[in-house]
Amino acid sequence: MSYPEHRPRRLRRTEAIRSLVRETMLTPACLVYPMFVCPGTGVRKEIPSLPGIYQQSVDRALEECRAVEQEGIGGIILFGIPESKDERGSRAWAMDAPVQQMVEAIRRANLQVVVITDVCLCEYTTHGHCGLVVNGDVDNDATLELLAEVALSHARAGADLVAPSDMMDGRVGAIRHRLDEHGFSHVGILAYAAKYCSAFYQPFREAAASAPQFGDRRGYQMDPANAREALREVALDIEEGADVVMVKPALPYLDVIRAVREAFAVPVAAYNVSGEYAMLKAAVAQGWLDERRAILEVLTAIRRAGADFILTYHAREAARWLRSC
Length: 325
Known about the structure:
alpha/beta; globular
């Protein structure tokens, strides 16, 4: 049977009907808000390529974290900006570094928000690469020990989930082993499992001062042309102990998000990255897009592709719009 017996428009006639039959639900609880924490007191510095996003000292970031909790956003992910860098990135695992201090401040304030910490070395090394550089190349196995130490410091501070973003082989297993042997078996791992070598990271690198000082990251981040490889990467991370897996970026890789969702039973996250945010904000500033409609459409598309939750710089504005619906 077809028209006139079947009329799909019947279920689009009013907002109440559309809401009743809507297939994909977007709520503040499925959003995670990235935050950049820096040294100092009273610091709140807007990032030029990420309008509305700031580098903040712990005291100011804690104020924003209170607002994030009140807005019903599911969680935050923390990135650190150290006061100094070295070849090994040793400030990444220092307990008095901004990320560790921020996690401890959140715990003291008893905020009920999921705290995720990014585990990588790129923000902390003088060369800007995600691992230890030996003879001009990133040494995979030598890096694992350092990443495990970073994750352990975050767990000691009180993180709920640690999120290795470096794309070194074996890092999930190394982190899981280190956490377990020190009594942190309850701390979960959100693995950046399928992280592509993308052009859409540039604003983040400005925000975190993490651009590589030589070469690029093609030797460890994934080739944008590959989809089957993503499934292999995800499978390996799950085998090593990942509790949640992530696809990054989101919009150019909706097909990968869908493939991962269909192939694995673990929670799937997607990172709506800095370049995606900046691109949309630039179009809005030119008057070319309706900001609210465009942002909610983008986030709904990522959810529809299969993401259980979305890391996005749009989290706070999206949460306000969703709560007003």
